[in-house]
Structures are given as C-alpha cells and as structure tokens.
Amino acid sequence: MSYIVLPLLICCVLYLYCRQRKAARMRFIDQYRFHPAIGKKVRQRYPHLTDQQLDQVFSALRDYFHICNRAGRRMVAMPSQVVDVAWHEFILFTRAYDGFCKRGFGRFLHHTPVEAMQAPTLAQDGIKRAWRLACIRSGIDPRRPLMLPPLFAIDTELGIEDGFKYVLDCANKRSPAYGDGYCASHIGCGSSCAGGCGGDSGSSDSGGGSDCGGGGCGGGD
Question: Which residue range(s) make up the domain with 191?
Fold first, then answer.
C-alpha cells in the first residue's frame, strides 16, 4: 500500500504548499504600500486627481498584479492608461520593484505596454486575457457583462484625457454610446459575436482553462 499512499501524501503536501504560497503572495500584494513619490509622479501627469482617486489607481494596479499572477506566464495587456503610468513609475524604483516581484510573483514581472483594442469590436489575445481575468476577479460574467471591471472602467471614471474608454453597449445602435469607445462586451467573444460568444481560437483561457482556473501552483514561477 505504501507505493500508493506515499505519492498521495506527496501530492497533498505539494497542494497545501502551493495554496499557502499563493495566499501569501496575494496578501503581500494587497498589503504592499507604494512609495508616496509614485503618487506624486502620477499626479504630475494627471493633476486633477484627488488623493482618493490616486488610491483607486493603486487599487487597480493591485488588481492587475493579481490577474498577472493568475495568468502565470501568459501575457496580460494593460488596459488602463493611468494605471500603466503608475506601474511605470513603480518600476523606476528598481530595487523596490525587484523585491516586490520576487515576493509577489516569484519572478520579475516585465512591463507590458498599455494596449487597447485594435478596433471598437476587435480585441487581441492580451486584452482578451486581461478582460476575462479582470471580470472573474470582480465576479462579472466576461461574456455577458453587466458592468465593467475596475481596470477597464478607471480611465473613464477618473476623466483621463488620454485614457481608453470602454463601454458595454457601444455596438447597440440605439445606445447613446454607439460608435464611441471600445465595446467591452465584444472582448470576451470569438472572431464574431453574431453567433454568440466563444473563446480564443486555440486558446486555453476561455473559461475553465489555466488562466481562469489558476493552474499549477498559482503561476509566477
């Protein structure tokens, strides 16, 4: 029986270790205090932001880091201009950022440039992945969203002039937002939304895959 019990015991130990490590990384990201100078740099770019709005920016940046952890080593596009500015300023604190990455991800997280959809109803893989994981984190159905996750809503909410505007119903010709911004409801769709929403062609992260389920030991190794 030992040849059965021992492998099961090893699997249980590895499983518990992975869960504990994942939980520790989540706590570290949630509790991390960004240097005040980062907020000052963000405000230099966007002087209209209040202290409370800056807190929203850093909360959204934490959301992005969490979904990067969940995506493992798959690329996750940054959909927000203001959050991207905060991330870039954080990276300039090289030692602090390197230490943050080691504890938060178990690896160095390289900067992914801010990216919008190629067209109002055409999304590339990085944005699709960001959309699905951001929706899952916020308890939103990525294929039938009733609201925008923070990362996709923040540029509009904070009045970021050079930001990216995502709306739920911009493809609806009866909507006042028709033709304005990017259609968030199309991001979770396949090559066409006419026949309903489907995942990426050949992708494993369209619901229940490794991106959505957090396969392995939580990613980031």
Answer: 26-212
